[in-house]
Amino acid sequence: xxxxxxxxxxLSVQEGDSAVIKCTYSDSASNYFPWYKQELGKRPxxxxxxxxNVGEKKDQRIAxxxxxxxxxxxxxxxxxxxxxxxxxxxxxxxxxxxxxGRLYFGRGTQLTVWP
Amino acid sequence: ETGVxxxxxxxxxxxxxxxxxxxxxxxxxNAMYWYKQSAKKPLELMFVYNFKEQTENxxxxxxxxxxxxxxxxxxxxxxxxxxxxxxxxxxxxSQADRSNQPQHFGDGTRLSIL
Lengths: 115, 114
Fold this sequence. Notes:
Chain A is mostly beta strands. Chain A has strands at residues 4-7, 10-14, 19-25, 32-38, 45-51, 56-59, 62-67, 72-77, 86-92, 104-105, 109-114. The termini of chain A are far apart. In chain B, strands 2, 4, 5, 6, 9, 10 and 11 form a seven-stranded mixed β-sheet that branches. Chain B has a four-stranded antiparallel β-sheet with strand order 1-3-8-7, with no helix packed on it. At the A-B interface, strand 4 and strand 5 of A face strand 5 and strand 10 of B.
């Protein structure tokens, strides 16, 4: 089955700096990679996703890059703000087979942005 | 966002009690999921239902019993739980087809076992 590794487990940055979280996956058939943000006491919420037919996607201060050959993808947050502090989860999924729709999650990264 | 609703939000129960968690999705999805999230641990997938049929059971103890009467409702029946079962239980739903859609989560039920 798929195995998703996520690093680092904790990340502290100064407000205004950039933050990068990296994930690797093992199943070359995985073709969908969402990122979730979970604030303390709240539900995980989708913040951005990428499909395997593109290498990069941006949404304001957030970007995700995908390297299919190396089987890794990364989340980039620029100009970080204290409200970006949360746990971020990466995930991988495939669009066919018996595990259709199932998300394989990384272990999460606790991001703390200091004012 | 009220696409996925979970009740109750908090539950405290003794080890001999029987209770049920409820999840309802209003997004027209065909797949629903139960996850367990313990403190400082990753999300653990417990059960997957696709078109009301259970397609995955990740070696979950039998004291957790899922039920999916239709594609909009999902229950988790709890019986003789252990203290280590205290956690946040999250429900999610998605459209599981070849278009690769994200999962949408509910707010979870915070379960405490006395």
